[in-house]
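Job type: complex structure
Entries:
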Amino acid sequence: MRKTLFRVCTIVLLLVLAAVMLVIGRGHTIYFDNKNLEVDGQKYEAVRRINVNVNGEQVAKLSKKERGMATCMGQSFQFEIEVIREKNGPSEFLTFDLALPYNMDGVVVNLPAMMAGLPQDKWMSEFIPAPVVEEEEEELPTDEFDLGGDL
Amino acid sequence: MSKRPSSGRKALSFLGANSVPIMFILIVGICIPLSGFSPAFLLNEIITRMGRNIFLILSLLIPIMAGMGLNFGMTLGAMAGEIALIFVSDWQIWGIPGIILAMILSIPISVVLGIMCGKILNASRGREMITSYIISFFTNGVYQLLVLYMMGSIIPIIHSSIKLPRGYGIRQTVGLLNMRQSLDNVLALKIGGVKIPIMTFIVIAVMCLVIIWFRRTKLGQDMRAVGQDMEVARDAGINVERTRIISIVISTVLAGFGMIIYLQNMGDMATYSAHSQIGMFCIAALLVGGASVDRASIGNVFLGVVLFHLMFILAPTAGAKITGDTMIGEYFRVFISYGVITVALIMYETKKRKEKAGMGQLLEAAQREEESAHA
């Protein structure tokens, strides 16, 4: 009885640990767009310059029509942007906390629309990489137990 | 009164018992100045390779303790680790959580494979090493079927970056960039250009302590008893078959963990070949460290990794300096690796035969004494 209980507890513990790892280890790539966006007939225009900082480190310097990226693990992502609207103009610092959808590997964030305070679904979309046409080639696995190569 | 062995005889028996590591120390001693590598470079390389390989080699100790010899079936655990890494890579779980999740996922696969291997080895008692070697070939076939044909078609694989262009099957190489050296970089120290992966060494140290503790447990004692004499152990009430299966299961699970630690250090995975070389390399390293088929310690693991991998680093360059051809060094290290396994097997068989002959002589003497007493 004690043995069975111990086994069940171990399995439950491992399952819980696995579930926690699935959540906290989920990796996302976040793409920051400084591009024009039209939402419900309203146009949100790109600004002159946006610098994106994550954990105090600059990850992107975006001029108009540019895209930057950062990676993150987990379901929330905090970043700071420095917005410069005019040449030699003052900097405006804004901090955002994003809740990242679990099912998205790549998340595109349109910064001008986000700064305008629109709901998340208006400025966040899934990044879908362009399909790459690859030549199909048969990759044959080796069945040799050789000692070549390095360790 | 029995005579005490002289110091000369003691030295000879020490040399005999440690001939393989002594030979390797000599080879390495000759190759180091010839290679021209700086001590910092060699130290860096050795520390990296220690962190990468020791856990895998530690997985071999428990079957040796249970008298099952060198577990060539550790390849099964390595395959379980690789399957787990494919899933984790597809699910995009990065860093340390990815490593932990891969380890958890590898456990059930390793346990199933370990039970299968243990049962087969019980059926082929006395021929465990060759059987485990062949099992690893057989399982490699099943692994290829699973990874090359079932993943992506029956087993869902989402990402095209790890799938073959035809839509099913896994690519030759799976990139593990998002978990590359995640474990090694935790608390890593850099001293004089030498990177010391502290967390990896902590994990290894914990594993060593677990092995030391395990030897003292009831199960550990049972394994040692089974390793010494199965019949005596059975008479003492130990379930020999079960104990042997458990030893193989533990070894397979640890090999799975070891493979994950190994691959996170490498940063990519050769899907169809990474596991195939690993068993041979680990066994060769353990034997170079002075272990034998029926006796191995944690010390042998550490010494073996240092000597075997030093030879790996030095041989091509030293070979190139001596002969002008790098390939000579490559051939040399391959020849040495296989050679050391062969020598260990011959030495084990010779020792066993000698012990048997000695037992026979003792029995004969005892019988003669008994007959003369009756007369």
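Summary: Chain A has a mean pLDDT of 88. Strands of chain A lie at 27-34, 37-39, 42-44, 49-54, 57-63, 66-73, 76-84, 91-99, 106-110, 124-126.
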